[in-house]
Design brief:
This protein has 301 residues and is of the alpha/beta class. Helices cover 32% and strands 29% of the residues. Keywords: Antibiotic resistance, ATP-binding, Nucleotide-binding, Transport. This is ABC transporter ATP-binding protein.
């Protein structure tokens, strides 16, 4: 059995269908990115996986336990980082860490010290005196120090600066090496692109695409930029090619969007005065925008 499984998982709030028949299969040791704009159903999914809300239909299994009926047992195997840290304002960071560790029955205290240094976190200050980024560090240190089998992370780098984002990526890498499973919901597409083994894209409560980054690229065009030795080159032979779109042209430079095989394009370019050519795969951001182009906003979940 996988670390997280969902079958037909659905949630309705009154007339609003927030999640519609979600199927998930996360292998143990996998880092899974969960993408979607506000209102797509990401937070609803996390609440169902954590047993905070009861599904309207379907079910989810976390660490082999029913996420709703067996939530207490499942939570022994899970650590969670919320997008909006809600902590005890009168406690210091150190007191918060000790309290959370005691609630859980312990943590890896040596690793916790390493994490506090890595995230440049001062545990002496009270929570009420901390910025959002530093309150997020409290959660991150506490969660990763548990060495939990499954980490559920909801916008975990919100409020962190670029140096701390790098510390987060290093920590996720260590968790992957230890065989921990990470469910990462994030708006930072570059972060997901760097860290995740597989990615799921949610729109209006439905999982509309899923796979590795290479698999997801099937919907998006490759960008090809070509420079010519002179201006006024006839681009009509390029426009006649199937799967090739002239996205922009200026002076002696042209930008092309290419879907499908590159061979016909290369054969055509061989007869033109090309000086340089650069080709790149679509980024995760470009893939994401393909799914959301002309998509109307949906109600928040």
């Amino acid at each position: 059995m996988g670390a997280i499984e969902a079958r037909g998982l659905s949630k309705r709030y009154g007339a609003t269908l927030a999640l519609d028949r979600l199927d998930l299969d996360l292998a143990r040791g996998e880092v899974y990115g969960f993408l979607g704009p506000n209102g797509a159903g990401k937070t609803t999914t996390i609440r169902l996986l954590l047993g905070i809300h009861r599904p309207t239909a379907g079910h989810a299994m976390v660490a082999g336990f029913d996420a709703w009926a067996g939530a207490v047992a499942a939570h022994r195997h899970v650590a969670y980082v919320a997008s909006e840290p809600t902590l005890w304002p009168g406690l210091t960071g150190a007191e918060t860490h000790d309290y959370l560790a005691n609630l859980r029955g312990g943590c890896d205290r040596a690793y916790r010290e390493i994490l506090m240094r890595r995230f440049d976190f001062d545990p002496v200050k009270k929570i009420r005196a901390l910025s959002k980024g530093n309150r997020q560090k409290v959660q991150l240190v506490a969660a990763f120090a548990t060495r939990a089998e499954i980490l559920v992370l909801d916008e975990p780098t919100a409020g962190l600066d670029p140096l701390m984002e790098a510390a987060f990526r290093e920590t996720v890498g260590e968790a992957r090496e230890r065989g921990q499973t990470i469910f990462l919901s994030s708006h930072v597409l570059s972060e997901v692109e760097l860290l995740c083994d597989r990615i799921g894209i949610l729109r209006a409560g439905r999982l509309i695409d899923e796979g590795t980054l290479a698999q997801l690229r099937h919907l998006s065009a490759r960008t090809v930029e070509v420079s010519f030795s002179r201006t006024g080159v006839d681009l009509e032979p390029l426009r006649r090619l199937a799967g090739v779109e002239v996205a922009g042209a200026a002076d002696h430079h042209v930008m092309l969007q290419v879907r499908g095989e590159m061979g016909p394009l290369l054969d055509t370019l061989a007869h033109l005065p090309v000086t340089t050519m650069d080709s790149r795969e679509p980024s995760l951001e470009e893939i994401f925008l393909v799914h959301y182009r002309d998509q109307a906003p949906v109600p928040a979940s």
